[in-house]
């Protein structure tokens, strides 16, 4: 049985970026499943599993984006990766709200549409048009994203990312300041710093540098 044309040449052309991305995806999936199995009924663990899957899909798809043999394959895997980079922001906000025990907020019916409907729109746009990358150019190391910084969708997506992380960070840090449990303070600090690191690196490497043609 013949595999789809998107698979064979990419697998044989895996480079260091692809390998790192692939192992990152395995790590994300493992961490998510591990936390979920500790307490499947806990909302925080369930949201963390979904968040880990979002990062895992993003990393897995980019393992093939980096080493694709042609632009058609790049675009195919880039659209698959949108299920990750197009959704992790809202899921991260949901996770931070659950972590900070913002029950009053999470019980409101409009919160979930407010968080997730923009992501549905962004993923749909990524599949049908331009949102972050206008084109891809092959380099000796990997495929290079040509930024779509002149697109309104680029800035809508960027604004959504910034707003969600500022809101999530403020809510979580405020809750951390009010709790007296050392364990919760440490958990919150690790979660916030980890998401800030991912957010900062993602913004720099996927938005800022491509926009500056670096």
Keywords:
214 residues; mainly alpha; two-stranded antiparallel sheet; 9 helices; 74% helix; 5% strand; disordered N terminus
Summarize the structure.
This protein is mainly alpha-helical and 214 residues long. It has 9 helices and 2 strands. The longest helix has 30 residues, at 182-211.
Write the layout of secondary structure elements.
Elements: H1 8-12, H2 16-38, H3 43-67, H4 71-85, H5 88-99, H6 103-106, H7 111-128, E1 133-138, E2 143-147, H8 152-178, H9 182-211
Report what the structure shows.
There is one protein chain. The protein is globular. 74% of the residues lie in helices and 5% in strands. Helix 2 packs antiparallel against helix 3 (43-67) and helix 4 packs antiparallel against helix 7. Mean pLDDT is 84; it is low at 1-13. It has 9 helices and 2 strands; from the N terminus they run H-H-H-H-H-H-H-E-E-H-H. The protein is mainly alpha-helical and 214 residues long.
| Overall pLDDT score | 84
The portion of residues assigned to helices is over 70%
Largest sheet: 2 strands, antiparallel
In total, the number of strands is 2
Helix-strand pattern: HHHHHHHEEHH
Distance between the termini: 42 Å
Shape: globular
Please state the structural category: mainly alpha
Radius of gyration over all CA atoms, rounded: 18 Å
């Amino acid at each position: 049985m013949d595999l789809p044309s998107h698979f064979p040449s990419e697998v044989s052309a895996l480079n260091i970026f692809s390998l790192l991305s692939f192992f990152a995806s395995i790590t994300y999936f493992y961490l998510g499943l591990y936390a979920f199995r500790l307490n499947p009924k806990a909302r925080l663990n369930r949201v963390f599993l979904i968040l880990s899957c979002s990062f895992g899909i993003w990393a897995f798809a980019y393992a093939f984006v980096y080493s694709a043999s042609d632009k058609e394959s790049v675009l195919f895997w880039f659209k698959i990766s949108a299920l990750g980079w197009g959704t992790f922001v809202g899921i991260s906000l949901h996770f931070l709200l659950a972590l900070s025990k913002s029950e009053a907020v999470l019980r409101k019916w409009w919160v979930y549409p407010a968080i997730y409907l923009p992501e549905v729109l962004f993923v749909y746009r990524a599949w049908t048009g331009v949102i972050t990358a206008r084109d891809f150019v092959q380099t000796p190391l990997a495929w290079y994203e040509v930024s779509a910084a002149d697109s309104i969708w680029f800035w809508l997506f960027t604004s959504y990312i910034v707003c969600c992380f500022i809101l999530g960070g403020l809510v979580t840090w405020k809750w951390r300041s009010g709790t007296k449990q050392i364990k919760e303070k440490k958990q919150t600090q690790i979660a916030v710093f980890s998401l800030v690191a991912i957010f900062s690196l993602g913004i720099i490497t996927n938005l800022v540098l491509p926009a500056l043609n670096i």
